[in-house]
Amino acid sequence: YGIPFYLQYLAHWPEYFIVAEAPGGELMGYSATALMLCMFTVMGKAEGSVAREEWHGHVTALSVAPEFRRLGLAAKLMELLEEISEKKGGFFVDLFVRVSNQVAVNMYKQLGYSVYRTVLEYYSASSGEPDEDAY
Questions:
Q1: CB–CB of 19/27 below 8 Å?
Q2: Are 51 and 88 in contact (CB under 8 A)?
Q3: CATH classification of 3-95 is 3.40.630.30, yes or no?
Q4: What is the pLDDT of residues 4-29, one digit of tens each?
Q5: For 44-64, what is each residue's pLDDT tens digit?
Q6: How far apart are CA 124 and CA 133, in angstroms?
Q7: What is the DSSP letter of 21?
Q8: β-pairing, 54-62 with 90-95?
Q9: What pLDDT was estimated at residue 69?
Q10: Residue 130: how many CB atoms within 10 A of its CB?
Q11: Which of 13, 53, 89, 133 could form a disulfide with 45 if both were Cys (CB 3.0 to 4.6 A apart)?
């Protein structure tokens, strides 16, 4: 995604942006966009129906720098995002993850998430590769 996408999220849902920082001030997370490198660790939003006043949280991006993985950081960031969603009146949190990303799929399952459905060709591929499905 480009910078306008992230800025729109930041403007609408600033409370859903969480950054993790090492004791020395080093940022431990980053987004997939090179221009946004080391700015965001977890990014989410609220989704739902204004008419029915039904809301839920949605994890848009979660990333931890390789040197800080396997420390429980992703689980803590998810916990914080879930708490924010609950305080805002959300009754669940959802997300999409690449079918091929078994490390992430397993982590989310350990955190209590389950596969609700498969969304065919959710992720656009580059350089002639086929699009990828998501859970």
A1: yes
A2: no
A3: yes
A4: 877 887 787 788 777 777 777 666 65
A5: 777 776 666 678 888 888 888
A6: 9
A7: B
A8: parallel
A9: 85
A10: 7
A11: 13
